[in-house]
Amino acid sequence: MHRSSSSIWLSVVVAASVWSLPLPGRATSFTVRNNCSYTVYPGVFPASTFQNGGWTLAPGASSTFTVPSGSIGRLWGRTGCDGSSPARCTTGSCGGSGLQCAGTTGQPNTSLFEWNINASGTDWYDVSYVDAVDNPIGVAITNASCVSPAACSASVLTSCPADLKSGSICLSPCTRYNTDQFCCRGAFGTPATCVVSNWMASAQTYVNNLHNFCPRQYSYAYDEVAGGALQTCATGASYTITFCPSGSGSGTPSANLALNRPTASSSNESAAFGPGLAVDGNGGTRWSSAFSDPQWIRVDLGTSRSINRVVLRWEAAFARAYQIQTSTDGTNWTTIRSTTTGAGGVEDFAVTGTGRFVRMNGTARATQFGYSLWEFEVYGPTP
């Protein structure tokens, strides 16, 4: 499981199941609805829950299936998925085959519904935005005595603090900054030490927005304390999980416009590390440049496109200083992002720009080697 509220919540639930086995009972009915204006590609763990872990849900569509007694799992709504195998998605990408996650879980840039059905006669469930908000989620329970955290407004996306925006996604402070404080770990790994009032303003805003627009849902790891986010219900109820319960959500999701598009580069370390390997959707292949400054990699999107997000997945040889630039002709360039403090790893950031060509122009290396990218991803609205 990737880090989220489940890293705490599921550990409690699993521990409970060790000393108290699920009681015999009938399967529970789940209905998943897509109330967004765009297609959502649900992912589910474990894969045996439904459709080997993934399927397509068009706007207005729904799917109903049963979850066996004793099941512990999670459901998320991927966006912007392509035809690769496994599918490359803007949010929630998993492994597996095609759209089927096949027992793998999604990348931590997506909203989650989590459950434990019939733990000693009790269902445990929650909605978590501890990683990010891509699709608002609502949950309605047929047992009227149980909490239905069914209201979640798209305002949580439109009100996202500027430093947490990544295209149409609102990243959590934990995902954006990956610190012990915001992820409630290490010295901050208890409800008493993970104190939101000590966070910087934008991180507090993320939590407050979720409390206001998506009540009784997780905004950080211990939100069952402040926000009442962890729910229980007597086993036997049915659940309806709705993406975008209050409307269209964030609008048309982004797609990776660079995937398998033509590329060029200023140099290659060797013929084995050409620029096309940075846009092939394969996290095990890479482009690598000569060991000198400056160096660049360029992708041709085929036509002028709006660009709202760039992801750089660096190998160990990364750029300390670089620019992200766009061009209509491949000759004259406009800088839409510039930094001299590149951190390597995965750099995922929002941009605003338009162009047919997009390039990473590296001007200062962080190592004695060249510039090396596993993947160069460029996102914009789908046609």
Please outline what is shown here.
The chain is mainly beta and about 375 residues long.
Structural description of this entry:
- Strands 13, 14, 15, 16, 17, 18, 19 and 20 form an 8-stranded antiparallel sheet that branches. A 5-stranded antiparallel sheet has the order 2-4-5-6-11, covered by helices on one side. The chain has a 4-stranded mixed sheet with strand order 3-1-12-8, with no helix packed on it.
- The chain is mostly beta strands.
- The protein has 6 helices and 20 strands.
Largest sheet: 8 strands, antiparallel
| SSE ordering | HEEEEEEEEHEEHHHHEEEEEEEEEE
Report the C-alpha radius of gyration, rounded.
22 Å
Number of helices: 6
Query: Which consecutive residue ranges, at least 5 long each, have pLDDT under 50?
Result: 1-23
**How widely separated are the two ends?**
33 Å
Structural class: mainly beta
Please, what is the average pLDDT? 89
Strand content: 25-35%
The gross shape turns out to be globular
Q: Into which percent range does the helicity of residues fall?
A: 10-25%
How many beta strands in the DSSP annotation?
A: 20
Layout: helices, strands, pairs:
Elements: H1 6-19, E1 28-34, E2 41-45, E3 62-67, E4 72-78, E5 112-119, E6 122-128, E7 132-133, E8 137-141, H2 155-158, E9 165-166, E10 169-171, H3 173-177, H4 180-183, H5 201-213, H6 223-226, E11 231-234, E12 239-243, E13 254-256, E14 263-265, E15 287-288, E16 295-314, E17 319-327, E18 334-339, E19 346-365, E20 372-381
Parallel strand pairs: 1-12
Antiparallel strand pairs: 1-3, 2-4, 4-5, 5-6, 6-11, 7-10, 8-12, 9-10, 13-20, 14-16, 15-20, 16-19, 16-20, 17-18, 17-19
